[in-house]
């Protein structure tokens, strides 16, 4: 027997070396491993005979080994293992690549079940790289064949097959009493949930009569039980965090007298939209409250979040406190610094401002940090350097965190820790569907600017292919002849990869030739800040007609004169990312264009299906919903950054929000009981360490 809290290194088939690799990936106990769920299932229940095999079909056969051999090829370290197998209907050959260890296992006469695809290789019909299971093995019930088989992603150096074997043995040997229920019994009863151990067993190794479609879509009773459990725990933690955050008596209740309102209104260069006014009222109520603000401000590209954040920062500053705005990149921090300074100067408001980024020389940084610590600097704009150890604020009152999904939860927490329970406003231009916002940001109050400033002409978006390139460039030349400018975005898999950067540089050289004599510049993530600034300044002042860029321009960079956005290999980007890129043009009344160039190997139907929503709408919420359907929340929001990387059922929550509402209502009802907080804390305290850490950090973004 094994316990749920057994360290993985003591499990048969793991050992110290593999356990170390698994620990690096965050898996230390058996209970951790039980929550590595299958990402799909294969139906290997029905058996075929050899004479029923069809080319291209994936089937299961039960056969005897006739003979086998290991072939060493001329390619270094490349071997082919072949096994001739037979049943009463005929013979067929199975082949595996670089599996020399199979030579000792596939001995003549041994009975084996194979599952794989039948293909033609060099004129011969073979089963290529099949999964296999010997019928004389210790587990005669079958783990890898003869059933609905769970398929896992590789974990550390455990192959999917090894993981399947390990989980099967662990679930069979588990002392059930050590795997306690996480959801109170009365709640599981109300929602017809099954015991946790039963749910885990059925998810990993479904019953013979299980519905394959329901399994693939994670709609079985077992999946529903685990999904409810997960969301219930998240909602309980968020509710506790929200309650605890609101109980903190900070002693700061900002005053917003009429004189201050009038002063701030005078500095505005334009009339606020109704949505901006509504959001300002919500933020104002938080600032006047004696409890710390913990609010998410979401708004589409160009909706005017920055001016709202500045007004909030000025309230804190006028009340004698410091304000900080943290941006994800130096380019964006620098742009925030310039634009906010311009607004303040235009409004006649004196406010000592400083920019703190990692590229400052040591002497400059010491000077800036000294002025922050002394309180001379009232408004500080910066990057991650704001939360580093050497940066100390005299009396930080309000933190604004821009494009918050780009920062890790630990980073956001550390900035908030720079003050004595400062107000926190986190902003995002990635529209978030309500169900996902409740799951990820359930401990924050959410404000939404759902209205764009008047006078904006929607960007016209088109999908084009390689054969259309000359026509696209002709249109680009036409816009530049009218005095406008253009972005061309190239995708990089890794901005640290020399091969990607080389390809982007080669593209820029080619484009410069194609568009001669137009001036073309390039900016990418590996350039020094001074180099980036020089190129961006040249583009902003009109010296460059075309800017080739990686996604460093995705968020916040503002050049109103740019009217064309060309995205190369648009199929490689997520829809929400494309929406952010498109937001760099169309900042005024003139017509702007976004051209999505699709790779030549991408079928038209696939491109239209994925990218069609970009042509149909400029509604960021609708685009975000479609992106979630296609790619899931992890890719859209970088849930690794949220600390939610191992949440298994986010996609199901979005698809079936009633599950979320039910779990949330139960969590809130439990906390409303006299001993509810103690009960919830006890449930959370019993969780594995990595769960506790993740849920503990839910309080800031």
Please specify the SSE layout and strand pairing.
Blueprint: H1 15-24, H2 30-34, E1 40-43, E2 47-48, E3 58-72, E4 79-87, E5 90-97, E6 111-121, E7 124-134, E8 148-151, H3 160-173, H4 185-190, H5 196-204, H6 212-216, H7 221-247, H8 258-267, H9 274-288, E9 294-299, H10 305-318, E10 322-326, H11 330-346, E11 353-356, H12 362-374, E12 379-382, E13 396-401, H13 409-416, E14 423-428, H14 434-440, E15 445-449, E16 460-464, H15 469-481, E17 485-489, H16 498-514, E18 520-523, H17 529-540, E19 546-549, E20 562-567, H18 575-582, E21 593-597, H19 604-616, H20 620-631, H21 633-637, H22 639-642, H23 650-655, H24 657-672, H25 676-685, H26 689-696
Parallel strand pairs: 2-3, 5-7, 9-14, 9-15, 10-12, 10-13, 11-12, 13-14, 16-21, 17-19, 17-20, 18-19, 20-21
Antiparallel strand pairs: 1-8, 3-4, 3-6, 4-5, 6-7
Helix pairs in contact: 3-5, 5-7, 7-24, 7-25, 9-10, 24-25
């Amino acid at each position: 027997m094994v316990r749920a809290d057994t360290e993985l290194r003591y499990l048969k088939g793991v050992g110290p070396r593999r356990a170390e690799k698994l620990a690096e990936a965050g898996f230390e106990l058996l209970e951790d491993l039980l929550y590595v769920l299958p990402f799909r299932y294969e139906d290997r229940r029905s058996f075929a005979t050899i004479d029923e095999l069809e080319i291209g079909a994936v089937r299961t056969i039960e056969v005897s080994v006739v003979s086998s051999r290991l072939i060493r090829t001329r390619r270094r370290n490349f071997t082919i293992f072949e096994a001739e197998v037979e049943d009463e209907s005929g013979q067929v050959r199975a082949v595996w690549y670089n599996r020399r260890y199979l030579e000792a296992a596939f001995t003549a006469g041994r009975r084996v079940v194979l599952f794989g695809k039948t293909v033609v290789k060099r004129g011969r019909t073979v089963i290529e790289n099949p999964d296999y299971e010997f019928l004389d093995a210790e587990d005669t019930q079958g783990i890898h064949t003869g059933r609905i088989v769970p398929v896992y992603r590789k974990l550390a150096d455990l192959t999917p097959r090894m993981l399947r074997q390990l989980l099967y043995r662990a679930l069979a040997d588990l002392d059930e009493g050590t795997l306690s229920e996480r959801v109170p019994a009365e709640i599981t009863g109300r929602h017809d949930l099954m015991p946790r151990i039963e749910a885990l067993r059925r998810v990993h190794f479904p019953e013979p009569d299980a519905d394959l479609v329901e399994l693939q879509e994670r709609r079985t009773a077992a999946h529903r039980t685990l999904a409810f459990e997960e969301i219930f725990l998240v909602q309980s933690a968020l509710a506790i965090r929200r309650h605890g955050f609101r109980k903190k008596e900070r002693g700061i209740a900002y005053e917003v007298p009429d004189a201050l309102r009038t002063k701030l209104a005078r500095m505005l260069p334009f009339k606020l939209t109704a949505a901006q006014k509504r959001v300002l009222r919500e933020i104002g109520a938080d600032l006047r409250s004696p409890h710390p603000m913990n609010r998410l401000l979401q708004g589409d590209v160009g909706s005017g979040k920055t001016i709202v954040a500045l007004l909030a920062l000025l309230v804190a500053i006028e009340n004698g406190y410091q304000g900080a705005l943290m941006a994800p990149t130096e380019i964006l921090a620098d742009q925030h610094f310039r634009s906010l300074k311009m607004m303040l100067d235009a409004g006649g408001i004196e406010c000592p401002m400083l920019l703190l980024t990692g590229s400052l020389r040591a002497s400059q940084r010491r000077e800036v940090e000294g002025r922050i610590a002394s309180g001379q600097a009232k408004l500080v704009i910066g990057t991650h350097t704001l939360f580093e150890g050497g940066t100390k604020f005299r009396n930080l009152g309000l933190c604004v965190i821009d494009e918050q999904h780009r920062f890790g939860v630990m980073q956001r927490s550390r900035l908030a820790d720079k003050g004595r329970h400062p107000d926190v406003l986190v902003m995002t231009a990635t529209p978030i569907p309500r169900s996902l916002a409740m799951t990820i940001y359930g401990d924050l109050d959410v404000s939404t600017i759902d209205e764009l400033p008047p006078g904006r002409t929607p960007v016209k978006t088109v999908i084009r292919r390689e054969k259309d390139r000359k026509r696209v460039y002709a249109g680009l030349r036409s816009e530049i002849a009218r005095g406008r400018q253009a972005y061309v975005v190239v995708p990089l898999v890794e901005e640290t990869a020399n091969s990607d950067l080389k390809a982007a540089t080669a593209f820029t050289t080619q484009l410069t030739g194609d568009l001669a004599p137009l001036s073309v510049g390039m900016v990418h993530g590996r350039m020094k800040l001074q180099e980036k600034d020089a190129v961006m300044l040249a583009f902003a002042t009109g010296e460059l007609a075309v800017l080739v860029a990686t996604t460093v321009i995705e968020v916040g960079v503002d050049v109103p004169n740019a009217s064309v956005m060309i995205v190369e290999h648009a199929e490689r980007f997520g829809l929400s990312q494309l929406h952010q890129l498109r937001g760099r043009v169309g900042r005024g009344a003139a017509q702007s264009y976004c051209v999505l160039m699709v790779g030549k190997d991408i079928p038209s139907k696939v491109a239209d299906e994925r990218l069609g929503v970009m042509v149909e709408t400029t509604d960021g919420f609708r685009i975000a919903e479609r992106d979630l359907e296609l790619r899931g929340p992890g890719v859209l929001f970088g849930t690794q950054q949220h600390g939610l990387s191992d949440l298994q059922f986010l996609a199901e929550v979005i698809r079936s929000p009633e599950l979320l509402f039910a779990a949330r209502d139960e969590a809130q009802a439990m906390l409303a009981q006299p001993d509810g907080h103690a009960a919830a804390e006890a449930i959370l305290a019993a969780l594995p360490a990595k769960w506790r850490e993740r849920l503990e950090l839910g309080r800031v973004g």
